[in-house]
Amino acid sequence: MAEPISGMLSLGAERLALIGKHAQTLMKGYLQGEIDPDAFSESTRRKLIDARVLYHPEDSFGLKLRQPVTQLIAALVTDEARRQIHADVAEKLETIRVRVESYREARRRGDYVKADLQLQVIHETVYDLTGQFEEAIHSLWHRLNSNFGFVSSLSDKIRENSRAQEQIKRLLDGISLLNFNEMIELAEGNPVLRKVLVTRLQNHLDRHLASLLEVQKRLVELMGRFREQQARGLLVSQMASFLRQHPSFVVGDYAYRSQVPKLVNCAAPTSVTAAVALDRRADSPEIVGLVHQLYKELALKTAKSTASANDDVLTTTASAPEVEARQQQLKADAEQYFLAVLENKAGDSAIDYLVTQELEWSPEVWLFQILAEFAGLPQQQQRMFVLERSEYEEQWFNQVRVIDDVTLRLGRL
Fold first, then answer.
1. What's the number of domains the chain is made of?
2. How much is the pTM?
3. Cα(319)–Cα(307) distance, rounded to whole angstroms?
4. Residue 264 is assigned to a structural domain of this protein
């Protein structure tokens, strides 16, 4: 295994050095679209073509960069116009499944060297999977905040908006392929796999979803701003067309009109401050009358509030004995249920007893009372009974369990 790795290491270092040696010329070819063949010697040109850095199209005189090299440069310089993001989630997930099976098989055979190698590949695949989402979201965010709005025509702008929306949809579809129930099953209690496939993947996915939410908010904001500018531009163009059709039209002075059109009458109303003129003796009787009237209204409102509060107190006091009686009746019915279990010496469902005896309590209140009565018994008396709960899971994602019935039976004395 050491020889293939050594050969790959030397070959990769040689080709990276070849790219670095001719980086200036390759970057010019990236910007201009092609490279003059005379920029390299014959041997250098052959080395770059054999290394799959350049290729010579049949219909072109110059050399061109291959797609992987172009994408590498676009990612390094953040050139969103030529950058392509491929979040192939399905392929990554299939790779994870295959590598996990190989990891388990190697551990069963005791081949720990191969198991460590497979585990390293799983780490790299998970990192690549989360990194693809991160790169795609970063690319979209950078494009929204740089050259998203700078287009030459309205149709180009509409296409740009549709492209951004489709990219967000593809990212959401890719994230939806991640099933953490499947990841938990793949881990099978292995702490190393569980940390990689569940914990780390979940943490990265939470951050990506939060970032994608911010991208969606930004896109909605930019589209709203675009529609506002589109409406203003349409208004100006229509007004210009109207003026061309009516060259003698003169805009009137709307400030002197009594009926102002709603299109122009957009000013917010002004709030005028006012105060009582206490220095005018002629208005003193009216001011005194207004003040007395205000005091009367305030006293009447206070009296109504006091009367309403007293009525509430009386109602509460009158209903207290009735509530106490119902509580005592509920407690007595629960005690009768315990006595019935003692007499029958067999398990009896609380809900069945409620229906059989035709009691008026709701099932929820009845079950709460039975549980409270059982919890309130002394330890010695609790050992006489066995309380079995009938539960079901409300939702699979929060593990909340709901008690729908209890069965009480005699224990071993």
1. 3
2. 0.43
3. 18
4. no
